[in-house]
Amino acid sequence: MNIEKLITENKGTIVDVRTPGEFMGGNVAGSRNVPLNEVAYRLEELKGLPTPLILCCASGNRSGQAEGFLMSNGVNCVNGGSWMTVNYYKSLVPQES
Predict the structure, then answer these.
(1) How far apart are CA 12 and CA 62, in angstroms?
(2) What is the pTM for the complete model shown?
(3) Buried b (16+ CB within 10 A) or exposed e, 57-91
(4) Among the CATH numbers 1.20.1050.10, 3.20.20.70, 3.40.250.10, 3.30.70.240, which is that of 3-91?
(5) What is the mean pLDDT of each run of 10 residues along the chain (97 residues)?
(6) Taking Cα atoms as reference points, which of 67, 86, 83, 84 lies closest to residue 75?
């Protein structure tokens, strides 16, 4: 899946798997915060979100771990890497006036 295209076309849901403190320090507008250590416990909630889930974190490592777990549980998702990269792609989305 082309991550940039998914984001610029407003497909799916952006899920940030960083800690709440990291998330509060800056995040992608409209993203959801589900810390990596809560992903397994919140699996049903994540399954209920519009897919694909576009996962992000600080570097792409934690979102990669989340991607592996979620894919093994049948969730359509993709590792978007760094939240700052995802945020950049989100900034390319035309804003409604």
Answers:
(1) 19
(2) 0.94
(3) bbebebbebbbebbeeeebebbbbbebebbbebbe
(4) 3.40.250.10
(5) 88 97 96 98 97 97 98 97 96 76
(6) 67
